[in-house]
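Rotation project, supervised by the postdoc (A.L.). Task for the rotation student: set up a whole-complex structure prediction and record inputs and outputs verbatim in this book. Inputs entered:
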Amino acid sequence: MTAIRVCATPIDLASEIADFFARNEGAGAIVHFIGRMRGTDGDARIVAMELEHYPGMCEAELARIAEEVRARFSLDDARIVHRIGRMTAGDPIVLVATAARHRREAFAGAEALMDFLKTRAPFWKKEHFADGTSRWVEARESDERAAQRWVLPAESTGVKGRVDEEAP
Amino acid sequence: MTAIRVCATPIDLASEIADFFARNEGAGAIVHFIGRMRGTDGDARIVAMELEHYPGMCEAELARIAEEVRARFSLDDARIVHRIGRMTAGDPIVLVATAARHRREAFAGAEALMDFLKTRAPFWKKEHFADGTSRWVEARESDERAAQRWVLPAESTGVKGRVDEEAP
Amino acid sequence: MTQAKTGEIELVYFAWVRERLGRDSERLALPGDVDSVARLIDWLAAIDTDHADALAARERLVVAVNRERAGPDHPVRAGDEIAVFPPVTGG
Amino acid sequence: MTQAKTGEIELVYFAWVRERLGRDSERLALPGDVDSVARLIDWLAAIDTDHADALAARERLVVAVNRERAGPDHPVRAGDEIAVFPPVTGG
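Outputs recorded:
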């Protein structure tokens, strides 16, 4: 298995999680994030979602994100698996996994992976509603703000983002 | 399955994770943290670890922690599974899982569960080294500081901790 | 493929940009004076009403040149793969 | 169990406190003037050298009364379950 993967079939969470666990025997801390398709958007019922991606650029961007986050938080390992194609409520859309010596790095790394993925990886969601209408999901400003948390101040090259800042 | 559990046999990660996933179909975000026994402490090789707990108080404290964190971060669900007894390198010591509508709450909830568990739940670790010696693990000041992150300022009852603070 | 004198670029479109244009890609000969992302979008929007409609909301478009995000001043050259798409919404 | 006149308390010990004492619990009759956690620890430490040794590092001891953490001024009464242990190290 590689560190990042875009797949058109349902994500096999159990095997991904077991594989990541087996490969990181020496890590004290493992964090998983699973994003699932929700069946509602406000009052509207979503019957299906389509996930489109930009083949080639998407994989390259995910690989850059995984490597950047792995290095920044001194992770033992980082993995991103993202679904594309048509899916229904409850399906996993994305799995990210991090392995580190301690929990702060594993948590921060997983959050950073998601924040970068949400703002940089070329995926687009289209929701299909129960009434037959559909719409492209709008990018959220809160995701942009979340990603900005990890931007390093240009003048402090030694700072590693939130992990250091929160444990003064 | 209940929300919290202390078990003397190895944690069955696959079945816990599958069960938590199945019970939280409506949640958009699921986070797992797995703490594993490491096989080294500095240069010393650890051949086994014993985990002792205070029966009764431990379960009560874990249930308080799970309910407190669930309410504070508006989680759909929270679970804590903690191992006791003798284990070897690579064994999972603890699994925490959170389910929420969005990722910020799921991540913050899982971190808070771990920070409270580390500082409040009556568990004690004893490490057995390759040279035949053993020692009780010392509590870490960094865990105390981590837990303090979640303490609400007495004067601002509306604040929900870091989730609000970090997305101004 | 025989390269035209002015050279060609490969354009790829995603999400609602693709839907409004009614195509997911096209090869176009690049005029000599179209040398930046901003000029490329201006020129594309003038091709026909489909292009004008799909590319109207400039502030909502992202451009990638050879699979890396590119700002309005980024150079455009014959042989480039240029993608135009809305802000991303994965995860 | 028949309750003594002064009443008894159940003491439980964990980790290195338990090891140094060489026991995981004991029932003791509570003297009338031992009415707080601080006084209880003082009284216990005076029982014998094992207790004195196990309870010497007061700043490293945590006390729970009836399974809830209790400070030095917390009242102690006959019938209470009182636990003495080091700072916790789970997770």
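Student's summary: Confidence is low (pLDDT under 50) at residues 155-168 of chain B.
Supervisor addendum: Chain B is about 35% helix and 30% strand.
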